[in-house]
Q: What sequence folds into this?
């Protein structure tokens, strides 16, 4: 939980009463690899901070499974519409590795905003981080395969080797064969650049 409080304090140091409140409501949850954190069709009751591990969201489109996002240590994850609108989730959230998560319920989070108005600054800064990431993911999916792979290597290179290629292909919206080809092309470009440099 120390990482989460470091994140908050980096935005603005938490007051002691707010820190005590959060310590009293945040719950630690250990999740095994392949365990479902949120099932599609259920209402998301919690927002999570990833202390350790890797998590993905899966959507089903036209009868196919598509990875909507992949998040790791230091990230905050949530099924946005389900959690904030209290609607059935359109996605499944699954652990890709054994994870340690910290979660807070919708009511507890909104109580924090109401009881500690300074916490709204934290909400704003966090939204300003994740909303552009969501927009960038949407724009990425409209690009050509090569550009999608380049963007992955720019934004989340640590996923290569840590996440199965099949899942990353699904995340980029390309076939596993295309993903493998772009991965080889990218590696060859790096080799060529290092020889020239």
A:
């Amino acid at each position: 939980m120390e990482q989460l409080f470091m994140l908050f304090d980096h935005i603005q140091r938490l007051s002691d009463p707010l820190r005590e409140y959060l310590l009293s409501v945040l719950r630690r949850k250990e999740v095994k690899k392949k365990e479902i954190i949120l099932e599609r069709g259920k209402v998301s009751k919690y927002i999570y901070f990833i202390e350790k591990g890797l998590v993905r969201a899966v959507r089903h489109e036209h009868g196919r499974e598509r990875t909507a996002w992949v998040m790791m240590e230091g990230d905050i994850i949530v099924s946005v519409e389900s959690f904030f609108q209290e609607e059935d989730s359109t996605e499944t959230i699954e652990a890709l590795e054994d994870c340690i998560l910290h979660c807070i319920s919708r009511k507890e989070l909104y109580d924090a905003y109401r009881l500690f108005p300074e916490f709204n600054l934290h909400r704003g800064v966090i939204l300003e981080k994740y909303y552009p990431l969501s927009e960038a993911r949407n724009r990425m999916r409209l690009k050509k395969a090569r550009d999608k792979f380049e963007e992955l290597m720019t934004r989340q290179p640590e996923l290569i080797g840590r996440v199965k290629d099949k899942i990353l292909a699904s995340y980029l919206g390309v076939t596993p064969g295309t993903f493998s080809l772009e991965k080889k092309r990218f590696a060859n470009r790096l080799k060529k650049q290092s020889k020239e440099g």
User: Anything to note?
Assistant: The chain has a mean pLDDT of 93. The beta strands are 27-31, 36-38, 46-52, 54-61, 64-72, 76-77, 91-95, 99-105.
